[in-house]
Task: structure prediction
Amino acid sequence: MKNKDYVEEFIENLRFLYDNKKQREIYIKILDICLEKPEDVGKEQFYEMYGNYCDRIIVANAQPVYREIDYTGIVTERKGSWREELWKGKVGGQHICYTVFHFMAVCADGRIVPCGPMVNPQLADDAVVLGNINDTSLLDAFCGKKRRDFLRMLLEKKRHEHPICGACHCPDATIFHKEDDLDPYAEELLPKFK
Ligand code: SF4
Result:
């Protein structure tokens, strides 16, 4: 099968999924660095190809999220997420990392950690380990005291004091929607995680 045929088959499957999605929402995203240049032409083509088969579509700006990756030549320019001002000299301004409020990750060795960056074995000593999949259920890890304590630490705006979170770009780079910004709601949310 040629690449073109794979794409056509993929779009056909996507159309089927969209027509039968019921209560699901389909969200499609691509990184800007994957588009052919000139970028605006690539964007238009991407929206044209997939825009009719999803509820939301976005061309995300690639950000240097993982500190163990050398982004030289990959991300040549820091473009903003919706909070453009954060990327104008104030990188690291976001206090609360919203992703961990609905996310956990399981490492290859079974450790359950709050997020993707903590899976990195080089950071294992500083990672917040919520249990091991071999003896802890995901539900227990998700609802457990350790995770609540961790989320409270974020809500108390102590992220920058944490050895991993303090150096992580995710909170600034992964905010795509206004609703993802939990900073203004910290006080309201805090009592819910006692
Ligand atoms: S700031 Fe980074 S390391 Fe900390 S919880 Fe968020 S994604 Fe994980």
